[in-house]
Amino acid sequence: MDERRGPSSSEPLAIAAFIDLDQSYLVIFLYNLTPINPGIVHPEGTHRLSEVLVVKPATSLYTAALICLLAVPALPAAADTQQQTAAQYKHIVDTEFVSQYATVPKKDDVLIIDSRPARKYDKGHIVPAINISNSQFDKLTHLLPEDKSTLLIFYCGGLKCKLSHKSAAKAEALGYTNIKVYAAGYPEWKKSGRVTGVSAAYVKKLVDKPSGAVIVDARPARKFKKGHVPGAINVSNREFDAKLNMLPADKATELIYYCGGYKCPLSPKSAAKAVAQGYTNVKLFQAGYPNWKAEYGAAGGLAKAAASPSDAAKIETGEEAGIITIASFNNLIKNHSDQFHWYDVRDPEEVEADGTYAKAVVMAVDDLQDKVGELPADKPIIFFCSTGARGGEAYDIVKLERDALEVYFLDANVQFHKDGSIPTASPPD
Q1: Is omega for the bond preceding 57 within 30 degrees of 0, making it cis?
Q2: What per-residue confidence (pLDDT) applies to 152?
Q3: Of 197, 215, 222, 247, which one has the fewest beta carbons inside 10 Å?
Q4: Are 40 and 92 in contact (CB under 8 A)?
């Protein structure tokens, strides 16, 4: 008979055997030769112990050799169909891996996907990623490539954010076969010093309400004259040095470069030159003028009226309706907690591991879609999570189905406490 422990695997194995003839035992150690996570260092080493078999009796070396030969094919071929946990997708990559594909011109055989809500993507993302938020995944599958072997790289708001893992699993269920998750996500990408991107919606806000940012068209003058983003200046990449004096003296000024879209390298080249000149707040609107024209027309669209937050509750919101400020959140949860419904929309395993606010209702954002009709209307609802991404998703879901309901969300990093005390909120990454 044999006794087994540890997961089964059909991946490449190495065998080590120990024979104790005095005790008539044979112990076989099977090591999985596939690295635990290529490119990521583990304290346990690069390979994992896959199986231990204790076989008795072990009467001879010939018997031992025969058992060793038969042990590997006898193991269940389960690795290829092994299900990943809900917390983390099985194929994780790092910043160096992603940087090979985050290029302009955009590569045709890879698609980088930001799984965060649009409001997060709008103000900062990896170029040239597209936005398919996890909550809207099923409605936006037409944005995925037809070729199911295309490399898909999902990311979201960092190691505590589960949106990219969930979206990756959904893509796999659709038949895509080459999927990776950049678990460190946007915070790590930004921390690495790479120039990040903004969307047309972000640029539109700057056009409608100037804030001191400078929008720079890196295309040749002839292109600029035919049409450009309102308020933009023209410093073509070729004339960068000659027109350097057109850039602001303050090196901390927000500079947003654009050109002719994802196939146009002029804006990233100019952005890199600006960084080399010491500018510290440089961004790319890489979708560029073609996207602007499609969204707002050649002359730009009229500014949309900003939605005014309800003044029935003493809630302070930021520039976007629905986002409660950190200061307001801290004040209300500390001094007026009974006047609101508090909803923690993280996954249950996160709540179990990190704790939650004692007065909060725990309802994972994935479960919210089916429970929108059950949400109370007697007091305002405030959604929160660990990074703000899923709180924003919850807000979007509710507004789509019950627009009259008074809901808000906290766009912040939140640290929870096991004792159920008030969580600690800090500015988002």
Answers
A1: yes
A2: 98
A3: 222
A4: yes
* CATH, residue 170: 3.40.250.10
Instruction: Tell me the three state secondary structure of residue 199.
Output: coil
pLDDT digits (tens, 9 = 90+) for 257-307: 999 999 999 999 999 999 999 999 999 999 999 999 999 987 543 333 333
Q: Is residue 234 part of a domain?
A: yes
Residues 363 and 279 in one domain: no
Q: Is residue 317 part of a domain?
A: no
Closest CA to 154 of 115, 198, 103: 115
Pairing of strands 424-426, 413-415: antiparallel
Would you state the structure tokens that stand for residue 71, as one six-digit string? 């042990």
Q: How many alpha carbons lie under 13 Å from residue 233 in its C-beta half-sphere?
A: 15
Q: Of the candidates 321, 332, 305, 348, which has an alpha carbon nearest to the alpha carbon of residue 411?
A: 321
C-alpha–C-alpha distance, residues 338 and 332, integer Å: 9
pLDDT for the residue numbered 333: 93
| Contact call for residues 33 and 72 (beta carbons, < 8 A) | no
Residues of the chain with pLDDT under 50: 1-11, 34-50, 58-59, 71-86, 300-313
Both 181 and 200 in one domain: the answer is no
Residue 391 lies in a domain: yes
Bridge partners of 217?
A: 234, 258
State the pLDDT at residue 306. Answer: 36
Q: Which of 191, 214, 240 is the last residue of a domain?
A: 191
Burial of 154 (0-12, 13-18, 19+ CB in 10 A): buried
DSSP letter string over 163-191? HHHHHHHHHHHTT---EEEETTHHHHHHH
Q: What residues make up the domain containing 234?
A: 196-296
Can you say whether the dihedral through the CA atoms of 249, 255, 260, 266 is positive or negative?
Answer: positive
Q: How far is CA 93 from CA 97, 121, 140, 282, in A?
A: 6, 20, 24, 26
Q: Are 154 and 92 in contact (CB under 8 A)?
A: no
Give the residue from 174, 191, 208 where a domain finishes: 191
Q: Does residue 315 belong to any structural domain of this protein?
A: no
